Structures are given as structure tokens and as C-alpha cells.
Write a sequence for this structure.
């Protein structure tokens, strides 16, 4: 998607503070963090929302979840606690329409919705 | 886990309004819903928190995510929007220590953390 900011980050056209990268996934610091730890995990493949993955993305989604848990451990928030979430469309508060998972921690988080 | 409320729901010892069940997963209505749609998805296997899954749970976690998306569609909130999330430990607001994924929608949701 030529006009997608997260595709441009995945392509290296827009800089980001990358914390993990492999062939399928990229994780980077949220530029507007809501907590001391706020990392985004995206698939490099452009999927717009959580409505888009199909059975062929099962492993990809599982890998995103495991990476979220790993990042929480690496950042030292796994024992204190954190939240892993995906917002979908307007009611969910989705702001960038490239599927992304938030890993948020480092303080006592507020209500989940 | 003999004292785990979600294991008891998975075993049928405690009633719940089940919306999906197979060999690995169970989805049921949250008894204290935070929005018009509030469904919980659990693995039948007892995992306490998001810190516990290992590589052997990759497919399980991917299936949970796909089920979340499917439930949002079935409930008619996929286009309006929803949030999929897992809370881990105290800072995340985890209340039951059996890994569970929230699917929340049906209204404009508040801040994610």
C-alpha cells in the first residue's frame, strides 16, 4: 500500500525505533507512547484491520502474540503486568489502518475499554 | 487447576453462556460486560498469564485471534469496530489467572490503557 505509513516503516522509508524484525514481523516503539513501555507489532504484509486475517494467517497471529510476550519480558514488565491489544475500526479506536498490536506496560493501566 | 474458575467453566462445572467451543478453545459471555459485546476466549489448557505460552502454543494463540475476529463478525460489530485484548498481571488489570482474551465492542470504546 503506497500510502500506508506502517508499510513505509516496514520498507524503511520512514524511520522508526525498531525493537524486533524478521521476514514477517516488525516491532517498533510507538511514537506517542501511552505508558513507559508502548511497542507496536505489525505484520509486514499489509492487512488493514483485524477483520482481514484468514486461516492462512493463523501462524502469523500466533507469532505476533508470542512476540508481544517476549517484548514484555525483555522490557522488564512481564511480572508487574502489561496489556496486549488490537483496536479495530472506529469504535475500537484504530488510528492507522495497517493491522498492529499494542504492547503497553510499565504503569498501572486504566480500564480496558 | 482445581481452584481455577475458568477451568471449571471449561469443564462444565460452572455454567456460562458459551458462544463457541472446540477441543482447544472455549468462548463465553463475560458475566460483567463492559460493552454491549463482551466475550472471553480461553484455551482449555490452563495457562495462567500471557507470560506462559511458549512456541508450542503459537497455533493456539493464532486460533484465539482468528476466533476473536470471527465472533466480532457474528455479533455485527466488525465494521463499527471492537478491541481484542489480553491483560497480564496486576498492572495490566488481569483478574482471573487463566489466560483469556477479551473481545469488546458495540459502543465507542474509551482509551486503551
Amino acid at each position: 500500500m503506497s500510502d500506508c505509513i506502517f508499510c513505509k516503516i516496514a520498507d524503511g522509508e520512514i524511520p522508526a525505533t525498531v525493537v524486533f524484525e524478521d521476514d514477517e514481523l516488525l516491532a517498533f516503539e510507538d511514537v506517542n507512547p501511552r505508558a513507559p513501555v508502548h511497542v507496536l507489532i505489525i505484520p509486514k504484509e499489509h492487512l488493514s484491520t483485524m477483520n482481514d486475517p484468514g486461516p492462512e494467517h493463523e501462524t502469523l497471529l500466533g507469532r505476533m502474540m508470542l512476540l508481544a510476550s517476549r517484548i514484555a519480558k525483555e522490557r522488564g514488565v512481564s511480572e508487574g503486568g502489561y496489556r496486549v491489544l488490537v483496536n479495530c475500526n472506529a469504535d475500537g479506536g484504530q488510528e492507522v489502518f495497517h493491522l498492529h498490536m499494542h504492547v503497553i506496560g510499565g504503569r498501572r493501566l486504566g480500564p480496558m475499554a
Summary: Chain A has one domain: 5-105. Residues 62 and 106 of chain A are 24 Å apart (CA to CA). The mean pLDDT of chain A is 97. Chain A is about 25% helix and 25% strand.
